Amino acid sequence: MAAQEITTIGTTQAAYLLGICVQRVRQLLKSGRIKGFVTVIKNIL
Asked: Using CA atoms, how far apart are residues 29 and 11, in angstroms rounded to an integer?
């Protein structure tokens, strides 16, 4: 199993990566559809 590195990103970058608006990301965070902080997990080879 490869090690994982967790990087915290902001709502603006998350919105860009997901292809949705910042307001939608914030709405998803508030409603609990995205748990806690928005993170991207990168596999380290």
From this structure: 9
pTM to 2 decimals?
0.62
Question: In sequence order, what are the beta bridge partners of 4?
Answer: 43
Beta-strand (E) ranges in the chain? Answer: 4-8, 39-43
pLDDT 10s digits, 27-44: 988 888 876 554 544 444
Please choose, from the candidates 25, 8, 5, 7, the residue with its C-alpha nearest in 3D space to the C-alpha of residue 16: 25
> Angle 30-19-39 (CA atoms, 0-180°, nearest 5)?
55
Letter for the amino acid at 35? K
